[in-house]
Amino acid sequence: MLEVERLEKSFGGVRAVDGFSFHVDKGETLGIIGPNGAGKTTVFNLITRFYTPDGGRMRFMGKSITHLPPYRLARLGIARTFQNLRLFKDLTVLENITSAHLTGHSYSPFAGIFRTRRHLRIEREARDNAMMLLDFLGLGGKEQAPAGSLPYGEQRRLEIARALAIRPRLLLIDEPGAGMNPREIQDLVATLREVKARFDLTIVMIEHQMGLVMNISDRILVMDFGEKIMEGTPSEVRKDRRVIEAYLGEEPV
Amino acid sequence: MEQASYIISQVINGLQLGAVYALIALGYTMVYGILRLINFAHGDIFMLGAFFAYFLISRFGTPIYLVFFATMAMCALAGYLMEKIAYKPLRNAPKISLLITAVGVSLFLEYFCSLKAIFTPDYIGFPRPFEVSAWNISLGGIDFSFTNVQVIIFAITFFTLALLYLLVYRTKQGTAMRAVSHDQEAAALMGINIDHTVSLTFMVGAALAGVGGILYGIAYPQINVFMGIMPGIKSFIAAVLGGIGIIHGAVIGGLIVGVSEVVVSAFLSSTYRDGVIFVILLIVLLVKPSGLFGKRIDKV
Amino acid sequence: MRFFLDSRKLILLAAGIYIVLKLLFSSGIVSEYIQQITIYVFIVVLAATGLNVIYGYTGQFSLGHAAFYGIGAYTSAYLVKTLGLNSVFALPATLLAGGIMAGLIACIIGIPILRLRDDFLGIATLGFGILVRVFFDNSDRISETLGGSRGFTGIAKLTNLEITFVVTVFLLIVTRNIISSRYGLFWRCIKDDETASASIGIDTTRMKLMAFSYGCFLAGVAGALYAHLYTFLHPSNFDFLKSIDFLIIVILGGMGNIAGTIYAGLLWVGFIEGLRIALPSNILDLRWVFIPLLLIVLMMWRPYGLMSKKKGDG
Ligand SMILES: Nc1ncnc2c1ncn2[C@@H]1O[C@H](COP(=O)(O)OP(=O)(O)OP(=O)(O)O)[C@@H](O)[C@H]1O
Ligand SMILES: [Mg+2]
């Protein structure tokens, strides 16, 4: 589904991503772990083209995507969330989602001005779809609240809902569990599973919370200093000495 | 040969104007470096400098070297007050609110000073502190001339830049300025007093603009309360051209803008001189938005 | 049609206002001068709404809005004069031409400069404003008719209450509808967070260009109305201060608030013209001492804009 080859990016002197390659198959859930500053988020920013790679190639569903701008990648079906949450804070919860839906469902400005049937139909679909997603992620009843006013955990879920609203095939999630307590993490695991099954998704997830990432991933990739240091199933990774040293600390989790 | 001498004299004239722009551009670049604020009213400090000098010379007959010190001090005070009164309360506000405030400060200074009771809305003649004389030089068969005004402008600009360099790179305060400009939070953690450093930056920038104002008055002896607008904008563009936040960039940018402006006036038409600057800005922003000496940074 | 159906309340309200104004105008109670200013209020509101689309809704800061207002004014005046279209019936066409010219130039200039943000965009638009001013000042070299720095004289007076009213109300409804369509939603997304907008598939470059061109189109139409109201144009009518005028109206009325822009436009023109009547001309200069102070106070009082509830530190 997604193939990344020898991706490179440096900032000033720092080689944030250094010849990093990986692939994800359709329907798979790939976890990426690694210590702070390993370059994980940078990989996401390179895939979604918020950063321009210094080198390397990327293909998505057989098509080269190395030179496509971010919005085109989104329309091809690559959705993402952000480590530091990037909701449209001043827009309502509902608008955060309808906006994403409407990028893929177009009507002309003319139709918007004269409120044609098509315009009304598409707007109604956007609304219905948004309500469905909000219910699905447990945000029903909050449609009219400004997104910025939600508690942190709900903002995280709203961001996932927004990403789903573009009907992606591939979902890149950056630390969905950050700042959540174990109970919330459990809910999140359940939600992500459901989401995956229901929307027929492939997921790449960066996560520090071992409980979450080990639980949900089919395969895990460990990064350090911009490079892949190992790759394997959750149980293999858990046992690997290098991983324990580089990342998991003294005690195996 | 004729043509060559003409070009050379125009370039010298351009450098003279460029030196003044460089002095103004430094204030823009330093303040931007430290606060990420385009201090729109900076051009008006330049105007104040010219007017202070005018009053010192024509009303009080102050000797010229004293005029420089006194004007620099008064401009520094103006810069200090401007920051404390108008910008400090908005330190954490959105960028645009700050810029709009700066536009407000600029308009206020211009129209307040244009009142009859303050300065005047009319053009007034700037007194010549000395007689103008010119030298003719022949180099490799090319004749050209330059004036003592130009020599003085270059000398004073150079001297001022040397002082600035010492301040920024050889003193504790200068180190603090560079630290705050590099990373405000880290600087604060290291115990640098941000407020003092910001004030100092404004004062130094304003003093430099004050010098620019005097030199401008000497070189183009007509002054007016609105005289700061265009040089202000052009100097800001010079700072962008050199790479905003970069001190030597502002100097080189100022010289380039000054020379382009004079050369365009001489060879095309003086009515296009203001237009050229925008074209320069567009080209910079299109080709290398970080300026000649700036590094490119990605941001998310 | 749904366009009128959905807007029937607004249209009724507008018709009511029109009838009142028309009665006042024809009864002879209000002077010619006041009539002219009343029409001018509509023009200013239209142009300021354009800036509100660009800045208030889409977050693209502009300090050169008056340039587009000027482009519309010169375009329409030039067409009417050279083609001899001295008829009210040809006016809609030249208004449209003025608007399209402004929108087109905005589109061309927008491609490079809309990559910039915030303050740098402000300076770039300011620079463009200066460029346009230089052009108007030298316009007599291209065509004697344009008048250069002497000003463009002898423009047919075609703007009347009816046409101004119909055009403004129509375009305000169009604007409201665009704002509530997906395009307006995308504009607001971009204002809120450009990166996130791109991540959900909004073509931010195109949407910003669209907002900018449309906002400048409104300014162009407004400028064309202005040209045929006052019959004389001078480059200084379209300079930086004029851009500040529009900016103040947008800030006063609340960013991203069309109704606010209407009230603020009315208030602002009333205030400025009131001062002109009330104050002797030698004190009139004081206006531009107080206006910037007002701007500064506004910014300190509500740095996030008038409509925002956030205050102070953030
Ligand atoms: N825009 C940028 N400019 C400069 N350096 C950057 C930038 N973005 C990332 N870096 C640097 O690249 C390196 C990798 O950062 P990245 O954010 O990818 O790490 P990460 O693995 O996501 O870490 P974390 O677990 O803390 O999120 C770091 O050294 C970081 O400082
Ligand atoms: Mg990260």
Q: Can you walk me through this structure?
A:
The complex is a heterotrimer of chains A (253), B (300) and C (314). With 253 residues, chain A is α/β, with parallel strands linked by helices. Chain A has a domain at 2-77 and 168-248: P-loop containing nucleotide triphosphate hydrolases (Rossmann fold). Chain A has 10 helices and 10 strands. In chain A, the strands form 2 sheets. In chain A, strands 6-7-8-3-9-10 form a 6-stranded mixed β-sheet, sandwiched between helices. A 4-stranded antiparallel β-sheet of chain A has the order 2-1-4-5, with helices on one face. The relative contact order of chain A is 0.18. The mean pLDDT of chain A is 90. A two-stranded antiparallel ribbon of chain B has the order 1-4. In chain B, strands 2-3 form a two-stranded antiparallel sheet. In chain B, α1 (2-35) crosses α6. In chain C, α4 (65-83) packs antiparallel against α5 (91-113). Chain C has a domain at 37-242. Chain C is globular. The complex binds adenosine-5'-triphosphate and magnesium ion. Residues 11, 14, 16, 34, 36-42, 83 of chain A line the site of adenosine-5'-triphosphate.
Q: Tell how many strands the DSSP assignment of chain C holds.
A: 0
Runs of chain A in which pLDDT lies below 50 for 5 or more consecutive residues are none
Determine the mean pLDDT of chain C: 90
Q: Quaternary state, please?
A: heterotrimer
Give the biggest sheet of chain C: none
Spell out the helices and strands of chain C N to C: HHHHHHHHHHHHHH
Q: Shape of chain C from CA axes?
A: globular
Structure classification of chain A = alpha/beta
Question: What is the N-to-C succession of helices and strands of chain A?
Answer: EEEHEEHEHHHHEHEHEEHH
Secondary structure tally: strands of chain A: 10
Strand fraction band of chain C? under 5%
Write the SSE topology.
The complex is a heterotrimer of chains A (253), B (300) and C (314).
Chain A: E1 2-11, E2 14-24, E3 29-33, H1 40-47, E4 55-60, E5 63-64, H2 70-76, E6 78-80, H3 93-103, H4 109-114, H5 117-136, H6 152-165, E7 170-174, H7 182-199, E8 202-206, H8 210-216, E9 219-224, E10 227-232, H9 234-239, H10 241-248
Parallel strand pairs in A: 3-8, 3-9, 6-7, 7-8
Antiparallel strand pairs in A: 1-2, 1-4, 4-5, 9-10
Helix pairs in contact in A: 3-5, 3-6, 5-6, 7-8
Chain B: H1 2-35, H2 42-58, H3 64-87, H4 95-114, E1 124-125, E2 134-139, E3 142-147, H5 148-170, H6 172-182, H7 184-189, H8 194-219, E4 222-223, H9 229-242, H10 247-267, H11 273-287
Antiparallel strand pairs in B: 1-4, 2-3
Chain C: H1 2-5, H2 8-27, H3 32-57, H4 65-83, H5 91-113, H6 118-137, H7 161-180, H8 182-192, H9 194-199, H10 204-230, H11 240-253, H12 258-278, H13 281-284, H14 287-301
Helix pairs in contact in C: 2-7, 3-7, 3-10, 3-11, 3-12, 4-5, 4-6, 4-10, 5-10, 7-8, 8-10, 11-12
The complex binds adenosine-5'-triphosphate and magnesium ion (MG).
